[in-house]
Amino acid sequence: MEAFTTHTGIGVPLRRSNVDTDQIIPAVYLKRVTKTGFDDGLFNAWRTNDPDFVLNRPAYKNGSVLVAGPDFGTGSSREHAVWALRDYGFKAVLSSRFADIFRGNAGKQGLVAGILSEDDLEQLWKILEQEPGTEVTVDLENRQAHAGEATFRFEVDDYTRWRLMEGLDDIGLTLRYEQDITDFEAKRPAWMPKTLPARNAETA
Amino acid sequence: MAGTLAEKVWADHVVRRGENGEPDLLYIDLQLLHEVTSPQAFDGLRQEGRAPRRLDQQLATEDHNTPTIDIDKPIADITSRTQIDTLRRNAEEFGVRIHSLGDLDQGIVHVVGPQLGLTMPGITVVCGDSHTSTHGAFGALAFGIGTSEVEHVLATQTLPLTPFKTMAITVDGTLKPGVTAKDIILAVIAKIGTGGGAGYVLEYRGEAIRKLSMEGRMTICNMSIEAGARAGMIAPDETTFEYVQGRPHAPRGADWDEAVEYWRTLRSEDDATFDAEVHIDADDLEPFVTWGTNPGQGLPLSASVPAPEDFTDDNARTAAENALEYMDLVPGTPLKEIKVDTVFMGSCTNGRIEDLRAFASVLEGREKNPDVRVLVVPGSARVRVQAEQEGLDQIFLDFGAEWRQAGCSMCLGMNPDQLAPGERAASTSNRNFEGRQGKGGRTHLVSPVVAAATAVRGTLSSPSDLGVPTAPSDLQPVA
């Protein structure tokens, strides 16, 4: 994973709440077995059917900082939603509230999911709408977003911020504690569920 | 020891407490896999030269992409076939147990786990699917994860996690006839909103919950994610033990006794404090239906389509405007006058045997509205077999419904079962998002008995609209 410190790019105001992961990438794009190449699925229905959709407007088309309404990323757990945003070129999403699974997935793929207050979200939207193409600088170290003259503070938890800034792989971090896992397993009761050897209604 | 159910299960799975803002490392007892969210995880293992740590704690099944007719023929859609083939190849290469299309234990992951007795009280269950919350009905801590986390669990059998907050949802009283578990959860989501549960594990408690069967409890926990919650849980009790006992992977003999003794401790202490509490009175509930494009946009079936002006919050008003446009609904229209084209009976929310029985109990002896297409899809191959042994299939076929093979089917637009653009469905599934059931399709979420009454009348209807009162025992078998 690439380390993230600061990023500057065009801010995209997505004035919608409850943008669920089916809107971010419809299920039909989930059939691939690769981890890249999902950009064409991003917001597919809106990009296809709505000429006024923000990413269809030339000033925002090359945006890389998405500024979205509350409850962004609700619904399905599909990590493809993060892959699609990443593949399109987004480096950060700012919103006043994220769905938990989405936020976790973002952190694992180097996509910053920063939480703004509702007032700041409204202000940032206005800046980006008044001057389409305005760049937003996302400063992860100081947890600040700058747009025009304004500066907004966003929240990212300490652990996620550290991992993003270091570009660390989660599995590698966990494997430092392999002995703890082995010790834990030794104490588990024998009757805990085991899928192997396989049993079913006929063999039970 | 004071503590909530969720905190107890969490505490019993901490491999290592996080220090200095680091998350806890939590042990995962069971991981369920399916074809959509696993290929990149297996690929990650391969790239890093890692092997799954515990093959005996993994189970794979095919569900999202699988067709529900002609399952003996090759899957027509090439990308679907690739995904299924990839899962089969990965399962073989890594040695993961898999139940493929045509196998008696194939079906929706969240139906198969409980059916095999792998889902037990007090365990941790994960799956790359948000409806993993279903398994919380057993008092398990069960939640959906992303593909990177699937890989993490394969490699380490753990996940680094920050503790969740806890919310008690107490449902007191008694449900009226024709009102079911589905109506409880739709009412909960309408009350707390699609983001109301964010960061929380919900614990459903109270008299009305205790009286529910395991199937009803699974319906409720299944949709916890639609309120934004990480998980939903219900403390295990005699109903739970009775359901688990004797299943293929359930503990036996002395193990059973030891397990039950432990499981009885899995309840929130009387002096436990929750971070939030919500109360709902079951006596006041009516059959519920969604009118919009998120599961929180729901109302009692006797209500009318709301107007955007009814909402004071700016975001809710805009969301309502967008939803009404997409759903092609006019404010003030009584919900019961909305005509539907399709009725979908199935999914991990309502695809279990009891759901099919409830659906059949309303259909039996009645005639289908000629303009409505009815699709009945069992949640697993075994549910299908059991339904056929009970003669339910004949009731569906006599009624004019299509009786299909097991899978996720029309719950999501990934397999051939989809709505056409503009088509309107009453669906027993869990999501009414734009395009969820097919591009341009319109979804109203309902319970199985409302779906059945709707199939008879052709407009959104409750069983009581059919004139003949249905006994509560028919609608909610098993107390």
Automatic annotation (TrEMBL), chain A:
<keyword id="KW-0028">Amino-acid biosynthesis</keyword>
<comment type="function">
    <text>Catalyzes the isomerization between 2-isopropylmalate and 3-isopropylmalate, via the formation of 2-isopropylmaleate.</text>
</comment>
<keyword id="KW-0456">Lyase</keyword>
<comment type="subunit">
    <text>Heterodimer of LeuC and LeuD.</text>
</comment>
<comment type="similarity">
    <text>Belongs to the LeuD family. LeuD type 1 subfamily.</text>
</comment>
<dbReference type="Pfam" id="PF00694">
    <property type="entry name" value="Aconitase_C"/>
</dbReference>
<keyword id="KW-0432">Leucine biosynthesis</keyword>
<dbReference type="InterPro" id="IPR050075">
    <property type="entry name" value="LeuD"/>
</dbReference>
<feature type="domain" description="Aconitase A/isopropylmalate dehydratase small subunit swivel">
    <location>
        <begin position="1"/>
        <end position="112"/>
    </location>
</feature>
<dbReference type="GO" id="GO:0003861">
    <property type="term" value="F:3-isopropylmalate dehydratase activity"/>
</dbReference>
<dbReference type="InterPro" id="IPR004431">
    <property type="entry name" value="3-IsopropMal_deHydase_ssu"/>
</dbReference>
<comment type="pathway">
    <text>Amino-acid biosynthesis; L-leucine biosynthesis; L-leucine from 3-methyl-2-oxobutanoate: step 2/4.</text>
</comment>
<dbReference type="InterPro" id="IPR000573">
    <property type="entry name" value="AconitaseA/IPMdHydase_ssu_swvl"/>
</dbReference>
<dbReference type="GO" id="GO:0009316">
    <property type="term" value="C:3-isopropylmalate dehydratase complex"/>
</dbReference>
<protein>
    <recommendedName>
        <fullName>3-isopropylmalate dehydratase small subunit</fullName>
        <ecNumber>4.2.1.33</ecNumber>
    </recommendedName>
</protein>
<dbReference type="InterPro" id="IPR015928">
    <property type="entry name" value="Aconitase/3IPM_dehydase_swvl"/>
</dbReference>
<dbReference type="InterPro" id="IPR033940">
    <property type="entry name" value="IPMI_Swivel"/>
</dbReference>
<keyword id="KW-0100">Branched-chain amino acid biosynthesis</keyword>
<dbReference type="GO" id="GO:0009098">
    <property type="term" value="P:L-leucine biosynthetic process"/>
</dbReference>
From TrEMBL, chain B:
<dbReference type="InterPro" id="IPR033941">
    <property type="entry name" value="IPMI_cat"/>
</dbReference>
<dbReference type="InterPro" id="IPR018136">
    <property type="entry name" value="Aconitase_4Fe-4S_BS"/>
</dbReference>
<feature type="binding site">
    <location>
        <position position="408"/>
    </location>
    <ligand>
        <name>[4Fe-4S] cluster</name>
    </ligand>
</feature>
<comment type="subunit">
    <text>Heterodimer of LeuC and LeuD.</text>
</comment>
<protein>
    <recommendedName>
        <fullName>3-isopropylmalate dehydratase large subunit</fullName>
        <ecNumber>4.2.1.33</ecNumber>
    </recommendedName>
</protein>
<dbReference type="InterPro" id="IPR050067">
    <property type="entry name" value="IPM_dehydratase_rel_enz"/>
</dbReference>
<dbReference type="InterPro" id="IPR015931">
    <property type="entry name" value="Acnase/IPM_dHydase_lsu_aba_1/3"/>
</dbReference>
<dbReference type="GO" id="GO:0009098">
    <property type="term" value="P:L-leucine biosynthetic process"/>
</dbReference>
<keyword id="KW-0432">Leucine biosynthesis</keyword>
<feature type="region of interest" description="Disordered">
    <location>
        <begin position="460"/>
        <end position="479"/>
    </location>
</feature>
<dbReference type="InterPro" id="IPR036008">
    <property type="entry name" value="Aconitase_4Fe-4S_dom"/>
</dbReference>
<dbReference type="GO" id="GO:0051539">
    <property type="term" value="F:4 iron, 4 sulfur cluster binding"/>
</dbReference>
<keyword id="KW-0479">Metal-binding</keyword>
<dbReference type="GO" id="GO:0003861">
    <property type="term" value="F:3-isopropylmalate dehydratase activity"/>
</dbReference>
<keyword id="KW-0456">Lyase</keyword>
<feature type="domain" description="Aconitase/3-isopropylmalate dehydratase large subunit alpha/beta/alpha">
    <location>
        <begin position="7"/>
        <end position="458"/>
    </location>
</feature>
<keyword id="KW-0004">4Fe-4S</keyword>
<comment type="function">
    <text>Catalyzes the isomerization between 2-isopropylmalate and 3-isopropylmalate, via the formation of 2-isopropylmaleate.</text>
</comment>
<keyword id="KW-0028">Amino-acid biosynthesis</keyword>
<comment type="similarity">
    <text>Belongs to the aconitase/IPM isomerase family. LeuC type 1 subfamily.</text>
</comment>
<dbReference type="InterPro" id="IPR001030">
    <property type="entry name" value="Acoase/IPM_deHydtase_lsu_aba"/>
</dbReference>
<feature type="binding site">
    <location>
        <position position="348"/>
    </location>
    <ligand>
        <name>[4Fe-4S] cluster</name>
    </ligand>
</feature>
